[in-house]
Design a protein that fits this description.
The complex is a heterodimer of chains A (340) and B (165). Chain A is globular and about 65 Å long. In chain A, 42% of the residues lie in helices and 21% in strands. Chain A has 340 residues and is an alpha/beta fold. In chain A, strand 6, helix 6 and strand 7 form a beta-alpha-beta unit. The chains are: A alpha/beta (340), B alpha+beta (165).
Amino acid sequence: MRLALVGFGTVGQGVAEAVAMKKDFVFDRFGTDLKIVAAFDSMTYAMDPKGLKPLELVSKKQSGKGLGKTRPKSVAEMLRELDYDVLVEMTPTNIENAEPGYTNIRTALECGHDVVTSNKGPLALKYRTLDDLSKKNGVELRFEATVGGATPIINLSRELLMAEKVESMKGILNGTCNFILSRMGEEGLPFEYVLKEAQEMGYAETDPSYDIDGIDSASKLAILANAIMGLDVTYHDVRRTGIRRITQEAVELATKEKKVIRLIGEVNGGGVEVSPRMVPMGHPLSISGTLNVLHMHTDLAGAITVTGRGAGRKETASAIMSDLVSLLKRNTCLSNGKVK
Amino acid sequence: MRVNVDLRLKDVPGQLIKALEPISINEGNIVGVVHNHDLVTGGRISVNVTFEHKDQRSLEAIFSAWKERGVEVVKMGEIVRTYPAEYLMVGNLAHSTLRAITEGIEKMEGVETIDLQYSLSTSTANKSVLLLVSLRNKEKIKDIDDYLMTRSKRNDFLLVRGMGV
């Protein structure tokens, strides 16, 4: 299966490493290779129809020289001329207009290619358009890596729980906020101090607003509401309150009542909302640290809770690999005539 | 409202159905039944029933049906079941704002108790207040949620809700 990797930052490099690491597994299991035929970063690219060496790409990128040649035109224009099977879109999330990810994904789907992505912007803003386009062209758009990192939330719900009707969902979808709130509760530290700590540890960006104002959680919640509960919402439909105003005193008052404060995303009959909530200690959503968790209620199975590591190079690469392996599995079934 | 009654029934088959039927017929909800076979007084056995009734009229209808059916009511007590709703408010919470909020909630239907707990901060500009409300009807929690969300926008404070019942 020939891959075009677009975006070669932390996630892209993690995926290249995972492709190298799982080479034997893929060949033993599916009798084929995951061949990277093109890789693009923001300025440069490398291409080889016979396959690029994944670890060499990572070394080149880390040396600061880029991936190869300077890109003469946009990635989307180059994708139109490229011979490949799956676009792996890993450019950074842009919640303003979803670009350049949206155009890249759209181009691949229009040209009849499957897409695997970790980019939240296109799905949080244009989910229905992209979903319709993939169906119209008979290709797959897979996006496990957009929500929950290594936690298998989307594929679990859409595949293993296919017969279930998910009636409501509540979850912690941002590890940075959870780290900040749990440190405040457990160590009695003020918000500004823990935020600085999170920045030093690499959990929070220099501009932390994307995390602490609930933008990241709201994007993920919009994706889940569409993908799992069949709603038609965008990021802008999510009622959003961040954790910026949570004080140490507020956390202490909650603790006296045996509650913790967590940034919770919720989808139910009342709408789609991200806001800080008081969660009873011991509740499945009272987890600490950078973990993510999703608690669903379904019509047959009742309550189901999934938890795991929500972000990071390896974790996101793991989610992308699970989507790529699903495509390999589908291709095997197709070639065996099991799926029509 | 939830009610607990001690009934005396004739010690013959079919009497328990006779006693429970009027509750469901009159839109009541049976919560629990304890059948005291050992406690026989004057040829009657004791049954303790807990049920919820819709309103005073439905309760009276249940009692008159029991009278017609020869079911004796020996003792009755009301059990008030309440549902908790918890809120944290953080921000510019002057005493007058808090008083207006609690007065607004007091006026709402089904509110049993209101408890306010303050942080030690002397700064009104960034005060933390825990508001605990108990309600007789869990459906009314949404009314308080909506009321406080409107107030939090108007008075510019952060509202942290509980997880609901």
